[in-house]
Amino acid sequence: MKKTIPLPSSPHLFFESRLWSQGVLYVAGIDEAGRGALAGPVAAGVVIFPVRSDLSTVLFGVRDSKQMSPEARFEWGENIKSVALDWGVGFATNEEIDQIGIIPATHLAIRRALEKLHLTPQHLLVDFLDLNPIPHPQTALVKGDCRSLSIAAASVIAKTSRDVLMIEYDRQYPDYGFAEHKGYATPYHLDRIQQLGASPLHRLSFAPLNQREKHSRSSS
Known about the structure:
By secondary structure, this protein is α/β, with parallel strands linked by helices. It is built from ten helices and five strands; from the N terminus they run αββααβααββααααα.
């Protein structure tokens, strides 16, 4: 029987500290946001922290972004940016997701986030994504956003940056409620798609949008 490793009560610096002790000083945590949404881009965040033993105390409220309220995410997001040595955010659009698929598009967003950095990472800590196309030493961690403070911080940066973008898109397409659901498949969002069809922000390769597209073609 496979042994299950319990998750810590909060993300920590075990993986970062182990690398720091080996002289690897630029350790970048990476995570994405919006991979499962029906509309809008997928976002990737990357964060490099300084070598500081007190970071877990300074950033004690930082968690996997899905475990935080919107208000807490935005507040901690600003704190993360002020503490980090470097950080970056990258996006891949819904059109790119439809063209190449969600996993390659996520890799594209990560590459764009890495390109925003001023520092060159020496090692990547990733939330269970295989980043073979990206030529950096890396460690993929199961539930990494719950176990690594750098990954958790990257998840907050990715999520808050994407949320700001979706709120801006809500002003362009006010009938879909993007400011509320951020493009995810809530009952309201699904009803809007049913009533209005897809907007230019929707991922037409995702169900139920691809099914609706197939149905409309067969009916024409």
